[in-house]
Amino acid sequence: MKKNFLNIFAVVAIGLAVVGCKEGKEANTTEPEAAAVTEVTAQKYKVLTDDSTIEWKGFKPTGTHYGTIKLEKGMLNLEDNVIQSGSFLIDMTSITVNDLEGDDKADLEGHLKGSMEGKEDHFFNVENFPTGAFEVTGTSTDADGKMMLSGNLALKGNKNNITIPVSFTTSGDDLTLTSEAFTIDRTKWSVNYSSKSVFEDLGDKFINDEIELKIIIKATKA
């Protein structure tokens, strides 16, 4: 009886470790769509890359890792105070781990970037795929009145359309766009390392397919 209780406790503990820290809902993911067209009258906003970031979290049974990724460049276009179109490049070489220090930090960053010999394609292989991209395909409003931003997310040579909840504000010449935390299934972008949905017999040596992301963009009138 005691052994059975301990086994049940272990399963529950692993479950809490896997899902307990996740905050975001999975983004609706579909086939790529045509990019939105920019009207001549649209107000253009240039992304301020030093002030913009993508926050990420990864999950596995033994814990969570998190960090940031920088943007390389981008532009957002507004018409009648609605995001009409736009795009930004993601600097995958800037992947940073913020929850570790020293050699552990360097090792995980190297593994994620694929700069470790024999592990180049485990995650993002930034030598072959140094940038990702997001291009706006449209906006909508959900049943709760939230603004939903749709766009093609390209990572590691794969492109899928995602729809995520966002909010934005303008003040003078400045614009701030922030997404809610959301998750994507990394295997849809061929990031398959230690995925239970791809490989069998991993036991508890797996990494969750879901990556949590939060996009924060600062921009100014171009």
TrEMBL record:
<protein>
    <submittedName>
        <fullName>YceI family protein</fullName>
    </submittedName>
</protein>
<dbReference type="InterPro" id="IPR036761">
    <property type="entry name" value="TTHA0802/YceI-like_sf"/>
</dbReference>
<dbReference type="Pfam" id="PF04264">
    <property type="entry name" value="YceI"/>
</dbReference>
<feature type="domain" description="Lipid/polyisoprenoid-binding YceI-like">
    <location>
        <begin position="44"/>
        <end position="220"/>
    </location>
</feature>
<dbReference type="InterPro" id="IPR007372">
    <property type="entry name" value="Lipid/polyisoprenoid-bd_YceI"/>
</dbReference>
